[in-house]
Amino acid sequence: MNTIHIYSNGRLEEKESGIVREFPLVLHVNGREIATLISSPHDLRFLVAGFLRNQGFVASAGDFHMLAVCDDFGIANVRIKGELPERLKPVLTSGCGTGVTFTMESGGGAPARGNLPTVSPDAVFRLMAELAQRADSYKSHGGIHSAAVGDGEGNLLLFAEDIGRHNTLDRIAGEALFKGIDLEGKILVTSGRVSTEMAAKCAMLGIALIASRTSATDMAVKMCDKAGIALIGYVRGGKFTVYAHHGRLAVATPAEAIHELPLRQATGRIPGVTGVILAGGQSSRMGSNKALLPYKGGRFIEAIHRQLSEIFDEVLLVTNNPEQYDFLPCRKVADIYQGMGALAGIHSGLHHASNPAAFMVACDMPYLNSGLIRHLATHADPGGVLIPEGPHGLEPLHAVYGKGCLAAIETTLLSGQRKIISFFSRTNVNRVNVEQVALFDAYFATFSNINTPGDYYSLRIGEREGDETFPAAGRIAG
């Protein structure tokens, strides 16, 4: 651990934190020093093997006579069956740490493939969500790229992370080589930009589709187009941009595309998402703190906390009066931007959440539908907003927000804007439409809230009579 200092609100605060390690590895092949790989210091044999595979120097595990890595001195000694070309022409790439390749001009020497399988968007979303959940180093330290390979159903097969995005693909190629995993026709998802060396390596490996959370370069697009690889960027929420070979996507026709997101009923606690309860303001229309009103044998907010605890491993309460909620067994956090309403509460909950995304809910919503919450959390976008739509419009106080929204929210708050939807134009927003919400809650009761004594009286009458199907509750405006 290292001592760092965080600047916030005019102060420098000391903190212990890990810092991403950068490890230079000198690569000797058949007695010749051919490159220095700047990488992260783990699983280096996979990195070396994958690098040589992607350069076309080896094709199978049997091509290695010896592969030894000395971590103490940062040297890898390799002997392979074939001979290296007498003259190697290194090309510095745009990879983090300045990558090197010897084969970029030919695109890895791989021919264009016309028989690669089609891929469903659902498989891409599944793999990207799994990638986000596994990228622990990126979440805790920043500066680490991650990549994963999966099959056409979206099942993850291999995962790697490194300071260099090109290194992640080398690691995957090396591990696949040693484990006998065929990468032909598979999907690659990556956290980093797709540039030429990434496309060339994928062509070499027979990858059918490359998907990134960010962008692709023009040369990568040309290379993927030539090699027959589908290339996708900006995979966020339920959307992405296709740069090459859109025909490789198994997309439903408009008549078949009923829902914006696939339906999958998750069970158990959902990883990678924090549940956040917004304690709210003064409850002026109720005349007392509605979060503390009696309900279901306890207090109102206890029922919500209990429900979220069954869905999420972490539940937070955003409140500026934590002493009022000592009975709740969860962490309490205050607004960072005081007096800025619900948007400040969302910001604080997202800022303090340990996960890359958080499901936000108001403290006065008694009819929460666990199935709908699970559906939203399963499709959480760490870089944007996933928001359901009810008969009255968007429901910002029953939505999932990714940490990638923090900068946009802060900019909005600093400009003096308090309305939740004010920052939507600054980030990626995906909707779950009314028709899909209705599959979970035909009466949209989950979006109802308790604002007045009359609302509360109707709720208690329904509780006593065992009928909570038709709530007579009010609405929340975002």
UniProtKB/TrEMBL annotation:
Subcellular localization: Cytoplasm
Domain remarks in the Swiss-Prot or TrEMBL record: The N-terminal domain determines nucleotide recognition and specific binding, while the C-terminal domain determines the specific binding to the target protein.
Keyword Transferase found: yes
Protein name in the entry: Multifunctional fusion protein
Binding site for Mg(2+): 364
PANTHER family: FORMATE DEHYDROGENASE, SULFUR CARRIER PROTEIN FDHD
Principal subcellular localization: cytoplasm
Positions that bind GTP: 278-280, 290, 335, 364
Domain MobA-like NTP transferase intervals: 275-422
Keywords, sorted A to Z: Cytoplasm, GTP-binding, Magnesium, Metal-binding, Molybdenum cofactor biosynthesis, Nucleotide-binding, Transferase
EC class (word): transferase
InterPro entries: Cytidine_deaminase-like, FdhD, MobA-like_NTP_Trfase, Molybde_CF_guanTrfase, Nucleotide-diphossugar_trans
Cofactors required: Mg(2+)
